[in-house]
Structures are given as C-alpha cells and as structure tokens.
Amino acid sequence: MRHPSHAHPSRVQPKPGLRRGLGLSLCALMGLSACADQTDKEVERAFQNVNVIEESNLSDIMLTVGDPEEAVAYFTRASRENPEKLDLKRGLAASLIRAKRPADALPIWREVAENPAATSEDRVDYADALIRSGDWSTADEVLDAIPPTFETYKRYRLEAMVADSNREWQKADSFYEIAAGLTTKPSGVLNNWGYSKLTRGDFAEAEALFAEAIQKDPSLFTAKNNMILARGAQRKYSLPVMQMTQVERAQLMHTLALAAIKQGDVQTGKSLLREAIDTHPQHFEEAVRSLRALESA
C-alpha cells in the first residue's frame, strides 16, 4: 500500500487559497492587458493630435515666412498624400501665387472654389488668380456670384480693379473707398486708386491720393514715383516735401525730368536730369543715358 504522500502529482488539488490567488493573478494580468490596450489608444490619439497641430503650424509657416518654392514643394507633396484635405490644396494654390506662378495656381483655385466645402473667401482667392492670369471677365463673374454680405478688404479691392478694367469709374471709386476703410494698411489700395485717377487724367485727385498713401506708408516708393508723374502732368516741376533717401531723390528727379520732356518742356527736363545725376551718391547711368540722348538730339 502506497503512502498518501506518494500520490500522483496530477491528482493533487490546489488549496482554496491558492485557487483564489491564481484567479486574482489572471484577472490582474487581463486588467493590465486591457489597460495597456487603452493606454496605447490614448497615446495614438495624442500623437494624432500633435501631428495635426504640427502640420497646421508648418502650413502656417510655409504660407508666411517660408521660401515660396519650398512651400510649393511641401504643399504639393502633402496634398498628394492627403488628397481629401482642402486646406492643403488651398496652401498649394496660395504658395503658387506667392511664387509668382498664377497660371499654375489657377486650376487648383478652381478646384477649391468648386468644392462643396468651399467658402466665399476661396472664391475671392479664385478671382484673384483669374485677374493675375488676365481673365478679367471670368473674375467679374466669380465676384458677382459671391453674396454681397461677404465684405472683406480683398474682395472690394478686386471689385475696384475689375470696375477699373471695365472703365466703370463710379463703381471703381466706390469700391476703392470701401476697401480703404476695411484695412489697417490702406497705402496699397490708395496707391491703386491714385493710379486709376492718373490714367483717367484726374491728375490733382491722383496726386492727393498718392500723398495720402505716402502718409500712411512713407516707405512706399511706388506711390512717391506715381505722385511725381501726377505732378509732372500738371507741370509742377519740384519735389514735394516728403521723407526720401538721397537715392530716391535722384530717382524721383529723373522721373520728373522725363515727365517734363513728355510735356514738351525739354530744357526743364535737361536741368532736372543734371540735378538727378549730381544728387545720386553713385553713378546714375540711366539719367546719364537720358541726358546724352537729349543733347545728341
């Protein structure tokens, strides 16, 4: 007869306390596994959120301070990888405009504008691309289709430019005035408005608008040069009092000289050219060539 202590191991029953311990251990392991799964999902979600934030920040950087061609490359790649994301298409189109490639931007802005999720702002940007590409009539149609309640600086600036191209002067003046009131930096639109007046022959009004643009932004050389053209057309052959560098003074005298010559005041033009050459801190080749051409004639 065998001793009970020699019983077969497989027949040995675990004690009740051990059974409960194993059950608790299994439950703990299962709980740990479930917790790990939950943690993994939370971590994945967190990283997705971080990626969205980083992508958004990178897009903003590319649209503002990044090199235009680098931005084009970035948005081209990103929009190919995520063709369903409208923001990336917007970024690509805007980057192409910044890179001075409106013809390439146009079909992308068209695609964005025709998307069911497109906004009025998208359609304004599409009109901008059309104008830059020389398609004024389509731009006019796109702008006309935007609700009048959508009032932004860019919308009215484009409306003014289209009205100008159609020689609808009253509408152009109204739109320029509205646009100037919708921005904290109106110097650019005031310069455009002044140039519109200049092309119509309203030289005094043009001069006043250029002066206002310069007052808003003393560094805007284009407005300074345009004001000299407006003054020259009125036979005002002196530079107005305004902030300018020595180089700018010489360049403006050169512009005024050419305006005088165009008016038939050749001797005044010659004097202004000589003054421009003397004023410029370096050799002013363009003014020298103009003077030589006059004297040889």
TrEMBL record:
Q: Which PROSITE patterns match?
A: PROKAR_LIPOPROTEIN, TPR
What Gene3D superfamilies does the database record attribute to this sequence? Tetratricopeptide repeat domain
Q: What are the ranges of the TPR repeats? A: 187-220
| InterPro entries per UniProt | TPR-like_helical_dom_sf (IPR011990), TPR_rpt (IPR019734)
* Pfam families assigned to the protein according to its UniProt record, in alphabetical order: TPR_19 (PF14559), TPR_6 (PF13174)
Keywords assigned by UniProt, alphabetized: TPR repeat
Q: Per its record, how is this protein called by name? A: Flp pilus assembly protein TadD, contains TPR repeats
> What organism is this sequence from?
Pseudooceanicola antarcticus
